[in-house]
Design a protein that fits this description.
This protein has ten helices and eleven strands. It is α/β, with parallel strands linked by helices. The strands form three sheets. A six-stranded mixed beta sheet has the order 3-4-11-8-9-10, sandwiched between helices. Strands 5-6-7 form a three-stranded parallel beta sheet, sandwiched between helices. A two-stranded antiparallel ribbon has the order 1-2. 54% of the residues are buried.
C-alpha cells in the first residue's frame, strides 16, 4: 500500500496526485512490495519477470520498450575486478527507463491521457519515450542549460519542451505551477510508483552473481536509484536469499551535494546547499525530496555518501572509456567514488553506469 509519509493517508483510488491532497506530504510504499522467487515469470521481457514485486494494480497494462536485463561487465580497475552495471543499454540510454515503465503503466491504469514532467535530460527523455509508447501527450519542463542531445531526444519522441531559464530548481517550480493548474504531474522525484523498477537492478545483479556484491557505487541526485536498489536487496534479504545487504555508496557532485554533506555531518535530513555549476547535470539537485529515506538507507546498509571532485570527472570518464564504457558526465562520478572508498567498503564492488555518453557533454 502507498501512503502519505506525514499523515498516513492512503494513496487515492482515483487520479494521480503527486503529493498528499490533505497535508502536502510525500507518498511512499508503506512497505516495499515483497520479492518471491517462485513468482518470477521468466517468459516476460526485461524487468517484467519481476512484475509481482512492482506493487502495480492488477489492471495495469505492461508499457515496455524492452527496459532492463542490462549487462553486468567485470573489468580490471584499481587493481581488482570491479563489476559495471551498464544501464546505458536501456532503450533511451539511461537507468530511468526502469522506473518510467512502471510509472507510465500506472498512469494508463488510471486513464490518464496527458501529463507533465521536469528533467535536466534523462528522466525527460525516458518519460517522453514511454508516453509516446502509451499514447500519452507529454510536456517536459527542461532547464535552459540542459545538453542539446538530451533536448533533441525529448523532442524526437513528440513531447513538447518547455525551456526554463536559470538553475534546475526553476524548472521544478515551473512544473509545480502547471500541476497546481490541473495538469497531471508524472514526477520521477515525487511519485513512488517507479521505485520498484529500480529494485530490479538488485534482482538482476543477484541473479548474475548468484549472490550479492559487497558494495554498490552509484551517482546520487534525488536518490531514487539508490533507494530502489537498497530496497531490492532488502527484499531479497527478507525473502531469505541474502544474509547481508550490500553497502550502498552514493556519489554526488561536489558543486551540489546536500546528501553528502548531511552524511558527513551526521544529519538525518539533507543540508541546504547552493546549486553550483557541474558537468554532472543529472545530479544537480539541491533539494532531494526523498533525502531522509536515502540517508537512512545508506546508514542501514553501513554504506556512505561522498562528493566527487569536478576536476576528476574528465579523468574518470577517460578511465571508463579505456575499459570500453562511454558514459555521460554524471556516470563518470563513480570512478572518483570508487577511488575514495576503496579499502573502506566491502568487496567485490559493483558500479552503476547510469547513462550513455552520446547524450552529450
Amino acid at each position: 500500500m502507498i501512503v502519505c509519509l506525514s499523515c498516513r493517508k492512503p494513496y487515492p483510488e482515483e487520479g494521480v496526485p503527486f503529493c498528499c491532497p490533505d497535508c502536502g506530504g510525500l507518498f511512499d510504499f508503506e512497505s516495499h512490495p515483497p520479492f518471491q522467487q517462485k513468482k518470477v515469470d521468466k517468459q516476460l521481457p526485461g524487468i517484467w519477470p519481476y512484475r509481482h514485486s512492482f506493487g502495480l494494480p492488477e489492471e495495469s497494462p505492461m508499457i515496455t520498450l524492452g527496459e532492463g536485463a542490462t549487462p553486468l561487465v567485470w573489468s580490471r580497475a584499481f587493481d581488482r575486478e570491479v563489476g559495471f552495471k551498464v544501464e546505458s543499454q536501456n532503450p533511451t540510454g539511461s537507468f530511468k527507463d526502469r522506473g518510467t515503465a512502471l510509472m507510465v503503466s500506472f498512469l494508463r491504469s488510471r486513464g490518464i491521457k496527458s501529463a507533465v514532467e521536469d528533467s535536466s535530460g534523462n528522466a525527460g527523455a525516458s518519460f517522453a519515450a514511454y508516453a509516446a509508447r502509451a499514447g500519452l501527450d507529454a510536456r517536459v519542463f527542461v532547464p535552459e542549460y540542459a545538453s542539446g542531445p538530451k533536448r533533441e531526444q525529448i523532442g524526437a519522441y513528440g513531447a513538447q519542451i518547455v525551456s526554463v531559464p536559470g538553475p534546475r530548481s526553476k524548472a521544478a517550480s515551473a512544473v509545480l505551477e502547471a500541476a497546481r493548474g490541473g495538469e497531471v504531474y508524472a514526477s520521477h522525484a515525487y511519485l513512488p510508483q517507479g521505485l520498484p523498477g529500480f529494485s530490479t537492478i538488485a534482482y538482476e545483479i543477484f541473479n548474475e552473481m548468484g549472490g550479492a556484491p559487497g558494495s554498490v557505487v552509484m551517482p546520487v541526485g534525488h536518490g531514487s536509484l539508490l533507494l530502489g536498489i537498497f530496497r531490492g536487496f532488502q527484499a531479497l534479504k527478507t525473502a531469505g536469499l541474502l544474509a547481508k545487504i550490500p553497502e550502498m555508496v552514493g556519489v554526488q557532485a561536489g558543486a551540489c551535494d546536500p546528501l553528502s554533506q548531511a552524511f558527513q555531518e551526521g544529519e538525518r535530513e539533507p543540508v541546504q546547499v547552493s546549486e553550483g555549476e557541474t558537468l554532472a547535470e543529472g545530479v544537480r539537485i539541491s533539494n532531494p525530496h526523498r533525502g531522509v529515506q536515502v540517508l537512512r538507507s545508506v546508514r542501514e546498509s553501513k554504506g556512505r555518501i561522498v562528493s566527487g571532485s569536478e576536476s576528476t570527472l574528465k579523468s574518470g570518464r577517460e578511465h571508463l572509456a579505456d575499459l570500453g564504457f562511454y558514459v555521460e558526465w554524471t556516470s563518470a562520478l563513480v570512478w572518483d567514488g570508487i577511488a575514495q572508498v576503496l579499502g573502506e567498503v566491502s568487496e567485490p564492488i559493483v558500479a552503476v553506469l547510469t547513462g550513455h555518453g552520446l547524450k552529450g557533454d
